[in-house]
Amino acid sequence: MQDDSQTAYAGRWVARIRGKIVAQGGTPEQALHAAQTSRHKEKLEIIYMPLQFSHPPLLDKVRDALPNQEIYLVGGAVRDLYLNRFSPDFDFASPSGGISLARRVARALDANFMILDEQRDTGRVIVTEADNSRIFLDFATFRGGDKLEDDLRARDFTINAIAYDLRTSSIIDPLNGADDIRSKIIRACSPTSLSDDPIRILRGVRLAAAFDFKIDLATRNAMKDAASLLPNVSPERQRDELFKILEGPKPDSSVRALEMLGVFPHLLPELTAMKGCEQSPPHVFDVWEHTLKVLGYLEGILAALETESSDDPFLAALIATLGKYREKFAAHFVESLNTDRSVRAALFFATLYHDVEKPATKSVDYTGRIRFFDHDVKGAQVASKRAHAFNLSNDEIQRIKKIVFNHMRFHFFTTQLNEKKREPTRKSIYRFFRDAGEAGVDLVLLGLADLRGTRDKSLTAELWDSALKISSIFLENYWEKREETVAPPRLLDGHELMKELNLESGRIVGRLLEAIREGQAVGEISTREQALTLARKMAEQGKDN
What we know:
By secondary structure, the protein is an alpha+beta fold. About 55% of the residues lie in helices and about 10% in strands. It has 4 domains: about 5-50, no CATH class; about 55-185, Beta Polymerase, domain 2 (2-Layer Sandwich); about 270-485, no CATH class; about 490-545.
């Protein structure tokens, strides 16, 4: 080897003879072995060639808390250092004592501690920053053996099988993961990496989308072979990886990749029938391709609402119309249905399932037009069933059901405005949000993405303007006129109503309260006396019937 540019070996271990580099490797042992094959009689010097990257000060604090301790930063955090990305999750590995090391670090950092996995000797330190964000430090003993290299080889992909020695600030990279990072390749650590833990199929697809990497051919084939083993993985782990895909970049490309890898029959079996299910105009795609398009358009819409301009004329019009609600959209997605998963992920899951029952409800009328009666109602049931199987929270399940169940309503209002110039009435606006609640915002966004995914390049500016007008009307009422049309202040409660009308507790009380509330929303009732007048009238009519 020529020693004309030592920077080429940054982050590698090299063997030198009289100052000249003669071999290199990802570990000291690899560099030594490579040199000995041709220079076995000569005296070798094995050194590490420093890699210039900045690491978070938190790593220095961990090192100082564990002086002289053999401890390595491993996994995705090292990969992210190479990519100059910040990671809120740090995994550390040591020969033994993962839980006790975590305790020591927690005391030194004045942070929270918990036992993560007693059987695997894994402890967690939770550092809360000044802005209330949290950083997780997990300490575990070596996996796959009693040596660091055994631990690294037992991991999923080479880009995650790199270690950073906190004591010496050196890199240990036995599988050349750094080369794969530079080449933008996702490669399995071993031929059995995927079959050992099939959830790595989803993780590999997610990483490829997140970093714009390619999955190498041998790894893709191994993913296909291991897909049938996914049912052996717990529903919670399936859910967590799937939702990370859905809330990450390129959800459409990632979902397409999962389908091509043969994952759906073993993870999302309800989706398989959508492929090749034909639709009549104005649809330009079958149900499956339409769903992927909607996922992609939805991602584009959410991204556009975070910016101030776009080269896409449809997104530019969107920004001009709805950009004033940028902060309100951000607040909507910051709200949590579950501490471990985002509102955004729930929306994309509902989007993935919004047309799931079209194949089962497909019919052809006398004109030859294909219809899908009640696909929204039945689709909500199917989406709910899958959400239950993934052990989603009740709040998440209800949000997903509402989105799928009500997703056609947006298109009705858009058509009414575009073809008949009819805007939604105050009553219809009230009922829309009465049924959808906070999911109403999601329904507007899905409606816009669904429209683009339906017509694609055949979408006209006129129809898009109608859809934006409907969006603006609904969001204005939801965010600016809430007490007028969406959630009028209560004029009287159920106990007062029963006392005034001499009623017993029952469904009639709920119906009367709802009628009063709707009367307020449409502007017919504004006082307690008017509310009681309506309630008495309805109660009398009920007696007569």
